[in-house]
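Practice record 12: protein with zinc ion.
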Amino acid sequence: MKGTKIYSIFTGTCPVCHTGKMYKERNAYKISKIFDMDERCSHCDTKFKIEPSFFYGAMYVSYALGIAVATATFILAHFAFHLGLFSSFIALIVALVVLMPIIARIARNIWINLFFKYDKTKAISKND
Ligand SMILES: [Zn+2]
């Protein structure tokens, strides 16, 4: 999987080398540290924040992801579990709240992956 954008997005690794971690705290549910990132990749020295407020754009991605999660939850609750409209709506809200930290990080990872490309030469350890 390494070398694909999916890998970087779901593991939160650097979009260029797929080796260095982007976040200081692995657990997205430690909300106070959810966006604590190193400025540069510890492995390949890529600067994550290309420009000030670079990650504001991730909000659009997180909005789209939220809609997708809400729609999927609603369809699942209403059509697969045969819940009523109100219960399905509650399920949708619960899913959004519970998954919020994951959605927020995935959105950031998708956003940064739109601007960077995997570079095999940078993936190789400096010591090799
Ligand atoms: Zn890197």
